[in-house]
Design brief:
- The protein is α+β, with helices and mostly antiparallel strands.
- Strand 11 (206-208) and strand 12 form a beta hairpin.
- It has 15 helices and 23 strands.
- The two termini are 17 Å apart.
- Helix 1 runs parallel beside helix 4 (97-106) and helix 10 packs parallel to helix 12 (371-383).
- The longest helix is centred in the middle third of the chain and has 14 residues, at 234-247.
- The protein has a four-stranded mixed sheet. Strands 2-14-16-15 form a four-stranded mixed sheet. Strands 4-5-3-13 form a four-stranded mixed sheet.
- It has two domains: 2-19 and 232-424, UDP-n-acetylglucosamine1-carboxyvinyl-transferase, Chain (Alpha-beta prism); 22-229, UDP-n-acetylglucosamine1-carboxyvinyl-transferase, Chain (Alpha-beta prism).
- It has helices spanning 22-31, 48-59, 86-89, 97-106, 125-133, 165-175, 191-202, 234-247, 262-271, 308-315, 336-341, 371-383, 394-397, 403-409, 422-428, and strands at residues 2-7, 12-17, 35-42, 63-68, 71-75, 108-112, 137-141, 144-148, 157-159, 181-185, 206-208, 214-218, 223-229, 249-254, 274-277, 281-286, 295-296, 321-325, 345-349, 352-356, 365-367, 387-391, 413-418.
- Helices cover 32% and strands 27% of the residues.
- It binds ligand EPZ.
- Ligand EPZ binds at residues 23, 26, 93-94, 117, 121-127, 162, 164-167, 188, 305-306, 328-329, 371-372, 399.
């Protein structure tokens, strides 16, 4: 077992460079299955979810070549099956994008119901509704989603009942090669939706309106190869901004699109951070005391749910009482129990957390229960007095490229420690 050991209480200073966006990469890589020819994808983050997605493509016969650790070339001309490996697919949420891409290109997909972070109920009814509207037969059997069409999919109006990132992207993937113009209404507007549209258009697709709540996909007969670079990760950037706000200090966060961070910047400023925006970087500084504020998570451009745990850590040591309301997921407060071990005073009632700021947190052994919860516990450890040990870090390494190295470079005292797991210990005894 590997854990992070953190000696807290140090201010952060220096520069950190943000990697490519996880949630864009895990959609754009399967989108390469729609491409007739080779496509080169640059700025992919070196994280476990991306590695798994590339393995899933390799496993069905795609030619996947890593040019370097952040660049890959994919050619899907020799796909041997449209059935994805069950165990691999259920390890990540984003495996559901294989359904849209395989169905759109080959008229058939068999993919396990997806896994991913445990955030409460995570249905995919809006995905399957979109595929059915485009003319596919969709069924769930033995843990697999089976989707099939006779010939090309046919364009249709799709109105989503909830704003869903995954369903919006999956509908786009399925509609790219469909016959006619698909209109997706009540679409999600996250930066990674726009990135997927830009990727598809750069390969010859005709997608307009991404970033608004109505997206039009004019079906084309084929899309061809090209080169595309993924946008910087909004949530990784927000996580480092939150770390500086929690710990104090001054850090330049580079390789970002400041506009994507507006919703995060506004709240961190309310909490006491000073943030200066440049063309592709932000300088985050915090010298004064932290202040309470209220937060409600919402689909973009609202405050992102994927920043809720990190923001709650800051509020747990701010002056006064804050209210945090989770507006996207049913259950995203499982990390609160771990934060309480560090002295946080937080009461959760359904989707609301009442956070009573304390003077300071103190280090403790804690467990990451999901990706952003893990990032939040790392921030808590950096801001706390004493030593924090974060276990179950595989969750964190699913989504943060070289987090230990990046934090160390800005003055954090954090290292990875190998510890024998219980099974190995009892064998040795
Ligand atoms: C994406 O998940 C992200 N994952 C999540 O990031 C992120 O929290 C979420 O979007 C919201 O921004 C990836 O991109 C791989 P949704 P997704 O469909 O697409 C309901 C992280 O930490 N819903 O936008 O699965 C659903 O229950 C991860 O990086 C339906 O009811 O989220 C939720 O309440 C965690 N039916 C809401 O919509 C559906 O068919 C939003 O979910 C689909 C969703």
């Amino acid at each position: 077992m590997t854990k992070y050991v953190i000696e807290g209480g140090y201010k952060l200073s220096g520069e950190v460079t943000i990697s490519g966006a996880k949630n864009a990469a895990v959609a754009i890589i399967p989108a390469a299955l729609l491409v007739d020819g080779t496509c080169r994808i640059e700025n992919i983050p070196e994280i476990r979810d991306v590695t798994l997605m590339l393995d899933l493509l390799r496993d069905i016969g795609a030619d996947v070549r890593l040019i370097n650790r952040n660049c890959v070339e994919i050619n899907a001309s020799k796909i041997r099956t449209t059935r994805a490996d069950y165990d691999m697919a259920r390890m990540i949420r984003a495996s559901y994008y294989l359904i849209g891409a395989l169905l759109g290109r080959f008229g058939s997909a068999q993919v396990a119901l997806p896994g991913g972070c445990n955030l409460g109920d995570r249905p995919i009814d809006q995905h399957t509704k979109a595929f059915k509207l485009l003319g596919a037969n969709v069924d769930v059997q033995n843990g697999y989603v089976f989707a099939e069409s006779v010939g090309r999919l046919t364009a249709a109006p799709i109105y989503f009942d909830v704003v869903s990132v995954g369903a919006t992207m999956n509908a786009m993937l399925a509609a790219v090669l469909a016959d006619g113009t698909t209109v997706i209404e009540n679409a999600a507007k996250e930066p990674h939706i726009v990135d997927l549209a830009n990727f598809l258009n750069s390969m010859g697709a005709n997608v307009s309106g991404a970033g608004t709540d109505v997206i039009k996909v004019r079906g084309v007969k084929k899309i061809e190869g090209g080169t595309y670079a993924i946008i910087p990760d909004q949530i990784e950037a927000g996580t480092y901004m939150a770390a500086v706000t929690a710990c104090g200090g001054e850090v330049l966060i580079k390789n970002i699109i400041p506009k994507h961070l507006d919703c995060i910047t506004a709240k961190l400023v309310e909490m006491g951070a000073e943030i200066t925006e440049y063309d592709d970087s932000v300088l985050v500084k915090r010298t004064g005391e932290l202040q309470k504020t209220n937060i409600k998570t919402l689909p973009y451009p609202g405050f992102p749910t994927d920043m809720q745990p990190q923001a709650t850590v800051i509020l747990s040591v701010a002056n006064g009482m804050s209210l945090v309301t989770e507006g996207v997921w049913d259950s995203r407060y499982r990390y609160v129990e771990e934060l309480r071990r560090m002295g946080a005073r937080i009461q959760v009632d359904g989707k609301t957390a009442v956070v009573e700021g304390v003077e300071g947190l103190c280090g403790a052994p804690v467990k990451a229960c999901d990706l952003r919860a893990g990032a939040a516990l790392v921030i808590a450890g950096l801001a706390a007095s004493g030593t924090t040990e974060v276990e179950d870090i595989s969750h964190i390494e699913r989504g943060y490229e070289h987090i230990v190295e990046k934090l160390t470079a800005i003055g954090a005292h954090i290292y990875r420690a190998e510890v024998p797991d219980d099974a190995a210990l009892s064998k040795a005894q």
